[in-house]
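Memo to structure team: turn this sequence into structure tokens by end of day. - J.P.
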Amino acid sequence: MASLMGTYYHNIDAKGRLNFPTKLREGLGVTFYVTKGLDQPCLTVYSEEEWERLSAKVASIPEAKGGQIKRWLFSGAGVLTPDKQGRVLIPQDLRTFAWLEKDVVVIGADNKAEIWDKSRWEALNASFDVQQMLGVLDELGF
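Reply from structure team:
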């Protein structure tokens, strides 16, 4: 799968539908999976192939150690299938979790996409620590 990339500004309508960016749909496939973000209050979207890979990894964690992550990841997960206009219905519980009301940002993040409330995305961008990111890149040999 090619890396998912780009930043797309969209709106969620009153019924909870989002016109999912064409470029990201092309990378994700006909049906894709959405769940709560693991490290941020956003939604994470995976292709079927990535979802199956992630599910298998999580399923292999012993219950005593991985029960909480399994509940977190799978309890809020849903399948998204775009309609003819490219819209997907974001379940209400996931919209509530990620504070999604109207203005949203959909980003490509390599092997996944993320859906953010626009103001939260802008706040996160404003708080990026460039020196910290450069330090990580330096550790990786860039």
